[in-house]
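Task: fold both queries, return tokens.
Query 1:
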Amino acid sequence: MSELTIDTAQKILADVFAPWVQALDIRVEAIGNGEATLRMPFAPGVAREGGTVCGQALMALADTAMAFAISGAYGRFRPMTTVTQTTNFLRPASGVDVVARAKLGKLGRTLAFGDVILSPPGAGEAFATISSTYAILSPSR
């Protein structure tokens, strides 16, 4: 199986993901072996009044990170769709970049399960934890 590189993952993000996800300016920092680390820089466009990053942007970051953790396990991008995403918001993400650390728990033939932790760069208390299930689609879809 080939290895998915950061450069290739960043190209997939630009070529495959929706323009509004691309507008979040997400950067792939690490990928491989069923794990991925992505960073979403803080920007006023993703914040509510007072500088708190909105939940929709955080959930999109988590969803994108898990898609790359799954792709990293395959060594390439595979078509997939989110089946469930359960998000527990723990504290506000205010005025800082948000780092998503995604880890694949189980990769089956048609389903994948994993978790994401959203936190500030470096060490810090998590903003949110996310558990997700994805359906792996056949390449013809």
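Query 1 returned. Query 2:
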Amino acid sequence: MPIACNAAKVGGITLCLCILMVVFSFLFGFAWDVVSPTEVGILASSVSKKIIDDTVYKSGRYFVGVGNYFIKFPITYQGIDFSYDEEGVGGPPLSVFTREGQTLIVEVSFFYRIDETRVHDLYRIAALNYEPLIQRKAEEVLKNVASTFHINDWFTNRDDISNAMRETLNYELYTTFHVYVPILQLRDIELPADLETALVEKVVTQQNQNTEILRRNITIIQHETEAQLAISQSIIVQTLQEATSFAYETKQQADAEVKKMLLDANSQAMYMLKTELGLNNTELVNLLFADMISKKPAESTVYVGFESGSVMIQN
């Protein structure tokens, strides 16, 4: 009997140990938590519902203890879209006022990203309900920025409006919720039909005025070009005339120089002939006359005047 009692006690103890091991294993399994590569986490207690420490846990598997868990925040870009699109987070297009008080319907999309070093502050502000708050704050900021621009700016300076919206929204959302806004897109703008027609007519009128100014400038340039060409042509004609006159004078001077040289050479030859032959002036003239007659063609007739009258000499 005592042996049976001891066996029963041993069996009970063993069963209790097995149960404790199972419970311990179960609890040990729940003492771990995982943070994915696209998230960061902060450690909280499921019992007290309070943050345990200020550590920001990046991707990995952690032993957090029994009853503790990670509150996780995405570190990827999150989108908010104010448009007619049915997909995505956001709402309908924004109804905004221009600086003149004119109503516009505007579609805007932007992306935000949580500053992972400030997730504790974000949690203290909004817990995990931050996205609707960001959306409402963004709507307020975008409408305020829109009211600072004139109606014409929405058609001529859309880049300026888009940049102003992104910069202001980035500042306001980071100051309030510690999130960045790196990307914003001003997608579409709707106008009332009567205002759109008036603006189109205004743009067309302005374009016609610009075209007329351009046409006048072209005409002025053409006239100036023609005047310049006329002046250039006049200079060319004058230059050619001066060059022709100079060439003629140069030719006349050259001809006179040649004749003078021939006369000088002939005179020198006559002097040498007279000197070498010892002739007087009358004999030299007779010699030159006889030489001239001898060079005439056989059929030529020459009339020569003498003191006694005219004599015809036939070769």
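Both queries returned. Flag for query 2: The two ends are 196 Å apart (CA to CA).
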